[in-house]
Design a protein that fits this description.
CATH class of the largest domain: Alpha Beta
Low-confidence stretches: 1-5
Helix content: 40-55%
Largest sheet: 7 strands, parallel
Order of helices and strands: HEHEHHEHEEHEHEHHHH
Number of strands: 7
Shape: globular
Mean pLDDT: 89
Number of helices: 11
CATH architecture of the largest domain: 3-Layer(aba) Sandwich
Distance between the termini: 76 Å
Strand content: 5-15%
């Protein structure tokens, strides 16, 4: 048993999402690192597919298949759509960000979910990191603690997170969340759009505070870990409200 725990388990439902990386070599290095820790799916958010030769040079022949099978998406929302739990990485802090934890703390929370659910680790561009809107797609936020000089390479950040996830999953006391019917990012985003529409219709949300309140609502509901059925129920309530509000407005206008 001890020998088995020394080797990271294969994680077919986990992926690395790279948003706007600047250098193809970093993509290749990330693929190589991911494979070492049992992750074989790489998703790229970019306008076009980067130079494959430069990516393969750093990936080496063992991780070449990850580069060749890599999915390229137009935006982070598209990349996140199929996943139920996403970790967003950031070195920046702000009042409206999700509570930030170290990679070790976050992976201890993600590990029980990674066995039976689709999970992803999302990394932003080397020079700017993920935007607030991209972090809104994430249920967890991870920050690597560094000294005053904070300048980790993208591949280094990927390595730290993959390692911590592997170690968390290989703990002898590691638990597994048996549920697999959690709502996906695509389903959650549809729900949030409906919630925002209802709150705007009731004037609870104004133009000046819309982002603030919706970010707080996202943070609250991400802690609940909604199932597909629950997200669908909330959308159903929102649709019914909007239907009644529309009919009432039409009746008032007819008078």
């Amino acid at each position: 048993m001890a020998a088995d725990r020394q080797h990271p388990r294969h994680l077919p439902g986990t992926a690395i999402i790279l948003v706007g990386p600047r250098y193809p070599e970093n993509i290749g290095a990330a693929a190589r690192i991911a494979l070492n820790f049992g992750i074989s799916q790489l998703i790229l958010v970019a306008g076009e597919r980067p130079d494959e030769e430069r990516m393969l040079k750093m990936a080496t022949h063992k991780a070449a298949h990850i580069i060749r099978d890599m999915v390229v998406c137009e935006d982070a929302a598209e990349a996140a759509a199929p996943f139920q739990f996403i970790v967003g990485t950031t070195a920046r802090r702000g009042r409206q960000r999700v509570l930030e934890q170290t990679p070790r703390e976050v992976m201890a929370r993600l590990a029980p979910l990674a066995v039976n659910n689709r999970t992803a680790l999302m990394f932003g561009p080397e020079n700017t990191g993920l935007t607030n809107r991209e972090l809104d797609l994430c249920q967890f936020t991870s920050t690597i603690a560094t000294a005053d000089f904070s300048s980790l390479n993208l591949a280094q950040a990927v390595a730290i997170h993959c390692y911590e996830l592997a170690m968390a999953m290989n703990q002898p006391t590691a638990k597994v969340d048996q549920a697999s019917d959690y709502a996906s990012s695509q389903q959650l985003e549809g729900m949030y759009r409906h919630i925002e529409e209802v709150l705007a219709r009731t004037t609870f949300l104004g133009d000046f505070n819309r982002t603030y309140w919706m970010r707080n609502i996202r943070q609250f509901l991400s802690q609940v870990r909604l199932k597909k059925k629950e997200a669908g129920m909330i959308r159903g309530v929102c649709r019914k409200f909007l239907w009644h509000a529309g009919n009432r407005r039409q009746e008032t206008g007819d008078r």
